[in-house]
Every structure is written in structure tokens, then in C-alpha cells.
Specification:
The protein has 305 residues and is an alpha/beta fold. The chain contains 10 helices and 8 strands. A 4-stranded parallel beta sheet has the order 2-1-3-4, with helices on both faces. A two-stranded parallel ribbon has the order 5-6. It has a two-stranded parallel ribbon with strand order 7-8. Helix 2 links the parallel strand 1 and strand 2. The N terminus is likely disordered.
């Protein structure tokens, strides 16, 4: 992007090192909406959170602007997912000149390889990538995110370290309850129905944690378009395995999935949230709401009536 060059010159030499004064509100920037919600949950009233990629928006193909660089330049701390999700972010951070610590919230998460399930059905191609970045789809992983956020906020703002610890502990209790709810909901779905078609391969951690099989025409990044061959392979697989429902993602164009459902003989099971929250008035305004909303969609389409 052309503005990166002048931005380095304009901001890189004038941004002071951040040292949050006692009692001051910490200015945190999170790379995308789900992570921003987790930072808010831990930070509470002591942290003002700004997100770069907002609700219902795709972090994979995001194009930052000079305004985003200014947000980073003014930050006391920056939280990123890592694992290759934000391919645009390293360059933006360098261009902004920020001296805020950059925290990889997923640090310590047990990662899984990014594999397109459909690539091993009819097409015969190996579409493996290095790492699946969508680690938040496993609630156990989000406990690690929360611990990393807690520790990072305590370091940059030691005056409120106890508040961050208490907030993280309370939120982790909610995560424990959510994890049990997910397991119970999946248990209610007959094993033969635990097969789900989604737009891109964003639910690998959910599949590994909870025993549901996901199939997607796109890979782990929405930047890669599904080929006609891959789409045809999924349609054949739906027919062969009698996959009951196709789910639309809030960040993706629904037309391809509607075609797959129509030609495969499956029904549209509803909207699910993979990489972004809904708006504040939607059903997935927080991480906890997002997971519960997805569960309701899966249960309504796949569980016995």
C-alpha cells in the first residue's frame, strides 16, 4: 500500500515509549473483534479497547488504512491472534512506529495443522497449510488467551493487576460453563449427523475438541477461492454421505454455499460466526454469545426433533 512508506517517516520518529501512568486508562488495540471482546472482558473499566477489524468483517483479507496505523501509534498495548491470521499486521505495526508491546494472545495454544477436509475426498490433492489460526473455536484454547491477556495487562498496568486477575478468573468460570454446554449440545446430535458444511475451514479446533466433522470449499483463509473442482467434490460428498445441512458464515458471500446446498440436496442450516462477532444488536455480540449462537444453529439443524 502506497501510504506505508510515508507513514514510517511521519510517525516512526515521533512516537514516545508507552508507560501507563498510575490510574490512567490503558489504551489497547486488538486486531479483530473476537480478540477485542476477550480483552474487554479481562480489562474491564481500566482498559479502553479499539479493534482494527470490526464486527461481521474478515480478518484474512483486511486492508488497513492510515487511521489504523494511528490507532497503533497511540496504543499502550497491542493484542494480536498470531498463527498467521493477520498477514497484514506486521507491516502495519512497523509502519505505525508504535512502541507498545505486541502480545500474541494465542501463545501456548496447542496448534493443529490447517487441512482442508474436502481435499482428501474426491479431488486427491493435498491442501495442507502450516497452522490453522482459528484457535478460539476451542473453548479450552480461549482459557489460554485469557491468561495471556491477564498477564500482559498486569505487566503494562501493575496498579490494576489484581483487578485483571479477578476478571480473568471470573471469565474463565464462564468459559468452563460454556465448554460443558458445547459438549452437552454435541452429545444431543446423533453421531451420523455430526457433519457440517461451512464456507471456509474455520472450525478445525472445534472439530478436534468436540467431535464434529467440518467440510469447507475454502481453506483456512478466505483469501483462497474454492475451485470448481473442489465445489463439485463437496456436492458429491453431500449426496454420498447425506450431509443434512450447510451453514453460512457471517463474513462470507452466501451465494456459493447456496449453490452447494441446492445441488447437494442439503438445507441451509442458518448463519454461524467463525472469524468475527456480530454487531452489538446481533446474536453474537460477544465471544460467549457467538459460541452459544453457533450451538443453537447446529442444534436446530442437526439434532433430532
Amino acid at each position: 500500500m502506497a501510504w506505508f512508506g510515508w507513514l514510517v517517516l511521519g510517525l516512526g520518529l515521533c512516537v514516545p515509549a508507552r508507560a501507563a501512568p498510575d490510574g490512567a486508562t490503558i489504551r489497547a488495540v486488538a486486531s479483530f473483534s473476537i480478540l477485542g471482546d476477550l480483552v474487554r472482558a479481562v480489562g474491564g473499566p481500566h482498559v479502553a479497547v479499539t479493534t482494527l477489524v470490526g464486527s461481521d468483517s474478515d480478518a484474512h483479507g483486511f486492508s488497513p488504512s492510515p487511521a489504523d496505523a494511528k490507532k497503533l501509534a497511540m496504543a499502550d498495548i497491542v493484542f494480536v491472534n498470531g498463527l498467521g491470521l493477520e498477514g497484514w499486521l506486521d507491516r502495519l505495526i512497523r509502519a505505525s512506529g508504535t512502541r507498545a508491546p505486541v502480545i500474541v494472545a494465542s501463545a501456548g495454544v496447542p496448534t493443529i495443522a490447517a487441512v482442508n477436509d474436502h481435499a482428501h475426498t474426491d479431488s486427491g490433492h493435498d491442501h495442507d497449510h502450516a497452522v490453522d489460526p482459528h484457535a478460539w473455536q476451542s473453548v479450552a484454547n480461549v482459557r489460554i488467551y485469557v491468561a495471556n491477556i491477564r498477564d500482559a495487562l498486569a505487566k503494562v498496568d501493575p496498579a490494576h493487576a489484581e483487578a485483571y486477575r479477578a476478571a480473568a478468573e471470573a471469565y474463565t468460570a464462564q468459559l468452563d460453563a460454556l465448554d460443558q454446554a458445547v459438549r452437552q449440545a454435541v452429545e444431543n446430535i446423533p453421531p451420523e449427523n455430526r457433519r457440517i458444511i461451512t464456507t471456509h475451514d474455520a472450525f478445525g479446533y472445534f472439530a478436534a475438541a468436540y467431535g464434529v466433522r467440518f467440510i469447507a470449499p475454502q481453506g483456512v483463509s478466505t483469501d483462497s477461492e474454492a475451485s470448481p473442482r473442489d465445489v463439485a467434490a463437496i456436492i458429491r460428498q453431500i449426496r454420498r454421505e447425506k450431509v443434512p445441512a450447510v451453514f453460512l458464515e457471517n463474513i462470507s458471500d452466501p451465494r456459493q454455499m447456496a449453490q452447494i446446498a441446492r445441488e447437494g440436496g442439503a438445507r441451509i442450516g442458518g448463519k454461524v460466526y467463525s472469524d468475527a462477532l456480530s454487531g452489538p444488536d446481533g446474536p453474537a455480540a460477544t465471544y460467549l454469545d457467538m459460541m452459544r449462537s453457533n450451538l443453537r444453529a447446529f442444534d436446530a439443524a442437526l439434532a433430532p426433533g
